[in-house]
Amino acid sequence: MSETSSPRVVIVGAGPAGIRAAATLVEAGVHPVVIDEGHCAGGQVYRRPPAGFIRTAKQLYGSEAAKARALHALFDRPAKDGQLTHCAASSVIAVQEGRLHVLGEGGVQVISYDRLILATGASDRVAPVLGWQSAGVYSLGAAQIALKAQGVALGRRVVLMGSGPLLTLVGAQLVKAGADVAAVLDTSPWHRQMRGLWRLAARPFVALRGLALRARLGGRYHAGVTLERIEADGQGVTAMRWRDAGGRERLTPCDMIGMGWHLRAETHLADLAGCVFTYDEHWRQWLPKTDQMGRAGNGVYLAGDGVRLLGADGAEIAGRLAAAACLADLGHPAPSACADLRKLARLERFARGLARAFPWPAAMVRALPNEAIVCRCENVTAGNVRQSVDFGGSEANRIKSLSRVGMGRCQGRYCQLAAVELVAAQAGCMPDAVGRFRGQAPVRPAPIGAFLRSG
Amino acid sequence: MITAGRIVRLAERDRAQLHFFLDGQVRTALAGDTVLTAMLASGHALRKSEFGPELRAGFCLMGACQDCWVWQDEGPRLRACSALVTEGMRLRTTPSESWP
Prior knowledge:
The complex is a heterodimer.
Chain A: E1 9-12, H1 16-27, E2 33-35, H2 57-61, H3 65-80, E3 85-87, E4 91-96, E5 99-104, E6 107-112, E7 115-118, E8 122-124, E9 137-139, H4 140-150, E10 152-153, E11 158-163, H5 165-177, E12 181-186, H6 190-195, H7 197-200, H8 204-217, E13 221-223, E14 226-233, E15 236-243, E16 249-253, E17 256-261, E18 263-265, H9 268-272, E19 277-280, E20 285-288, E21 295-297, E22 300-302, H10 311-329, H11 338-357, H12 362-366, E23 373-375, E24 380-381, H13 382-392, H14 396-403, H15 416-427, H16 431-434, H17 448-453
Parallel strand pairs in A: 1-2, 1-7, 2-3, 7-22, 9-17, 11-12, 11-17, 12-13
Antiparallel strand pairs in A: 4-5, 5-6, 8-18, 14-15, 15-16, 19-20, 21-22, 23-24
Chain B: E1 8-9, E2 17-22, E3 25-30, H1 35-42, E4 47-48, E5 55-56, E6 69-72, E7 78-79, E8 90-92
Parallel strand pairs in B: 2-8
Antiparallel strand pairs in B: 2-3, 4-5, 6-7, 6-8
Organism (chain A): Mesorhizobium tianshanense
GO molecular function, one term (chain A): oxidoreductase activity
Keywords (chain A): Oxidoreductase
């Protein structure tokens, strides 16, 4: 990688934040290295299907088609012209003393950095429901990726559940594509959604678009539901058992369930890079701390949903800001940040409104029966987690070693928030007092052979 | 295309066909299918859970949950949601006999 600029800037992630950061650096004459898990740049929201797929950008990205096309071009052009180095289909699995351990097809290589911009994005924030370990239960994001990148529905009869903008969006997209969507179950009641409304006025068009999508769901959409259990047989999901806002028992036959409650920031690399974390009351999760530009200290910058859950538009702005901060710190002339900072503040008001309108289902998690599985990787139950509080107290990492929750191959990404909620309930404290699981390298499973190949 | 599996193809159905082997049986997929799509086009699951009686069919589809690892007759395991199926690929829902 001798062609990269010195000092070397490395960006992890090529979604909206990573692409904007890369483009800003390239424009200033800096040659960044961009490491991304995707086969081509775009991230999850603007993910591109494999070669040979023919749907248009309009069909794939709907109202966001122009943004998607612009971002793809913004990355592809400098990549083609050799103004940036793109390590595609590669995962950063460890960060140590200015060096990244990168797992790709050829094995593990070490890439050193002087400045590091982390744009690692987010994944679905999921909460356990009885039976969610069954085949045919997916995250909402998974349902959207399957449709966008493969043109498929993950089942013949679909139930979507959870809360947040993605619930409505995925439902509307699946209906439009011709999938059989039986029900869309929102755990947030109407009065709660209304309470977040005044903040949503910060982006009236986005809020209206959400309502229009909701209208497309018609009678499939139910607010204020209680999720009882996922019924399954030897092959997988057979039905969803739930109660409507009036308390009536309902059973909806289905063979696929998509679930999610908004997003969970992907913070493992920020943790390994030594970032400081604070508990965010609105988003109900631990997030790395930065200044308003995205500086986290030690030459590390954070941008996008991996640090503040503002969605794709916010990620683009944050990516530009992080790159501007990086340029300024390197002594390069940096683009002005004033307009971007104002826009970002408005997006943040909106996003915090969303977080209030479509909250994390704390009460549902706290009420889980002991036999409910919390960790899908190793089938650790709610009972196991509660028991370990009685043995060893309420500190997150102690719970992890006693019960193995968070020790499976997803490394706590899909169980940590629920486990912490259960611990807080059992110990009678607030979730932030429980703490958070320490991030551990490698942050993705890595075959031993990959290390051997790299010598 | 009518298939007997978990997934329903809603679009992009005119891609070239290819063949792969699943537990020794020949199966059909479309060029550009992920291993997950290819396996679930004719089946209901990718593997059995190591920690419970249930089958697993993937969960996040973005390489984060690690629920969808499957075996090959030879060579390394694959994350079914991110690897593309290729002509003649030999996949397994269980480890091979020689797996240590």
